[in-house]
Design the sequence.
């Protein structure tokens, strides 16, 4: 059983690029699996169904041909084992470059008691920090999620 890193995954890009990413990498004919829809090519990374629906509602409110970037948040995204793994980072870089979108997440893992701050911009990981705490319950912002 993996240790889950859990947090809110932010995706930044044009409406058109985010919609294409969602259609091809998240939906793509999948049925809902535990704990949600898998993000294809990112090992054991899941977006909850209600979070996907919220993101689609937000995208529906924007004009699809606008060149201005927007940010969509996938609440309570889970990924097994974390972001510091080489093939996970390469998967995010590949998707970021292919769809011209950026990723950012702060996630927590309550079992091993660490927080990860991860960012991938223009197809390159720009940040991947694991933060340890001396007193997890007191210091961590969300000590009860992940694990």
Sequence:
């Amino acid at each position: 059983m993996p240790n889950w890193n859990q947090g809110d995954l932010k995706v930044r890009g044009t409406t058109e690029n985010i919609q294409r990413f969602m259609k091809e990498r998240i939906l793509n004919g999948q049925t809902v699996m535990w704990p949600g829809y898998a993000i294809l090519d990112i090992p054991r990374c899941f977006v909850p169904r209600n979070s996907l629906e919220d993101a689609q509602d937000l995208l529906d409110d924007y004009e699809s041909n606008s060149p201005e970037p927007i940010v969509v948040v996938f609440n309570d995204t889970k990924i097994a084992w974390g972001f510091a793994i080489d093939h996970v980072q390469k998967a995010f870089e590949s998707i970021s470059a292919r769809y011209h979108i950026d990723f950012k997440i702060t996630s927590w893992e309550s079992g091993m008691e660490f927080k990860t701050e991860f960012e991938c911009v223009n197809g390159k990981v720009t940040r991947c920090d694991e933060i340890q705490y001396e007193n997890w319950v007191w210091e961590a912002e969300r000590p009860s999620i992940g694990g």
